[in-house]
UniProtKB/TrEMBL annotation:
Keyword annotations of the record: Lipoprotein
NCBIfam families per the UniProt record, alphabetical: GldD_lipo (TIGR03512)
InterPro entries, sorted: GldD-like
Annotated Pfam families: GldD_lipo (PF25593)
Protein name (database record): Gliding motility-associated lipoprotein GldD
């Protein structure tokens, strides 16, 4: 009986040696991201600007050392690491030159990502109130994938940028990036100004 089992074992070993076993690595997996429906709420009327922003986001004042009045962060707690940083400038006492400086600064801040960006696509349009808005979509492993500004060219200038505070690659964040991009476009299309609010310097 021992000889029989020994013979079976030898045959199995010989058969295994004769076959080439190909190693196939497991594909890298990513955590599944469940996205909610797009729903919106109104920004409080205590700001000199107005827009509708996502019901899945919260507003927090910018607490950085360089923050100015009415600078905010729109934070998405569900995504933990995503936020839209919004800055505002009152240009009512400024010259046309100052407006152009702000617009040029927007282009300059976007162009800083050129080193890592595969491409930067610019789109300029007018929202429902006829106000100019420009959006910049950046591709590649950049820290900010979407930037924008809008202005009435007279008193108000609003700029924003989407940031993800995570080391996760943008390819795996793509569904969340697209989700927030749609929210930003909705913000711009619903943007208007509150001229009754006194300016803060």
């Amino acid at each position: 009986m021992k000889k029989f089992w020994y013979g079976c074992l030898c045959m199995l070993l010989l058969a295994a040696c004769g076959e080439e076993v190909e190693y196939v690595p497991k594909p890298k997996g990513y955590n599944r991201i469940d996205l909610p429906k797009h729903e919106y709420q109104s920004l409080p009327d205590t700001f000199p600007y107005f827009f509708e922003y996502s019901k899945h986001a919260i507003i927090r004042p910018d607490s950085s050392w360089m923050a100015e009045p009415y600078w905010i962060h729109i934070i998405y707690p569900k995504f933990g690491y995503a936020e839209v940083q919004v800055t505002y400038k009152d240009i009512s006492d400024s010259t046309e030159k100052k407006l152009m400086e702000l617009i040029n600064d927007s282009y300059h801040l976007t162009s800083k990502h050129q080193i890592k960006a595969y491409s930067i696509e610019e789109t300029v349009f007018k929202n429902a109130l006829g106000q100019k808005a420009a959006v910049f979509e950046l591709s590649g492993e950049v820290p900010s994938q979407f930037q924008f500004y809008t202005t009435d060219s007279v008193r108000h200038f609003l700029r924003g940028a989407l940031y993800f505070r995570t080391a996760t690659k943008n390819d795996s964040l793509a569904p969340v990036i697209d989700f927030i991009k749609k929210d930003i476009i909705h913000m711009l299309n619903t943007a208007r100004w509150n001229d009754n609010l006194p300016a803060k310097k």
